[in-house]
Specification:
Helices cover 56% and strands 13% of the residues. With 138 residues, it is of the alpha/beta class. It has one domain: 3-Layer(aba) Sandwich (Rossmann fold). Strands 3-2-1-4-5 form a five-stranded parallel β-sheet. Strand 4, helix 7 and strand 5 form a beta-alpha-beta unit. Helix 1 packs across helix 3 and helix 3 packs antiparallel against helix 4. The protein is globular, with a radius of gyration of 14 Å. The relative contact order is 0.19.
Length: 138
């Protein structure tokens, strides 16, 4: 079983049946060989992006509960991830929204997760501590 952090964009594309990434996203999150993980920041981002697109909040919450919460392990920041976060900030010197990506990586690696599923490859490709799921690179 592969433990993989699922970035918010994968969930957003799984929600959006019209997206060109919809099928690929659904195949990732429904893969029985993958254990799904997510952080609270990614849940907030999922809701923020979809509400900005004027999607109905009730439908967003229903999808969140039935697809994300029921099928993922939520990883919360803790003392170890905070230490990892500060170490990564020193190493990568992030600016702006890049700080959030570094925090997500810190939470993942503090929970021994070394791979992320994302189509925002540029956000994570230069972070040595995490690998991008190969299926997202094709």
């Amino acid at each position: 079983m592969n433990n993989i952090l699922i970035d918010s964009n994968i969930w957003i594309y799984a929600y959006d049946a019209d997206s060109i990434f919809h099928s690929k996203s659904v195949s990732i999150i429904q893969n029985p060989d993958i254990s799904l993980y997510i952080s609270p920041k990614q849940i907030s981002e999922f809701i923020a992006v979809l509400t900005k697109l004027n999607e109905p909040i009730g439908e967003i919450i229903d999808f969140l509960q039935s697809n994300i919460i029921n099928n993922s392990t939520i990883l919360f920041p803790d003392e170890l991830s905070t230490k990892q976060f500060t170490d990564l900030c020193r190493k990568y010197n992030p600016h702006g929204n890049r700080v959030f990506d570094i925090e997500i990586v810190a939470i993942a690696i503090s929970n021994q997760i070394q791979e992320i599923a994302t189509f925002n490859v540029k956000d994570f490709k230069n972070i040595d501590e995490i690998q991008i799921l190969q299926k997202c690179l094709l």
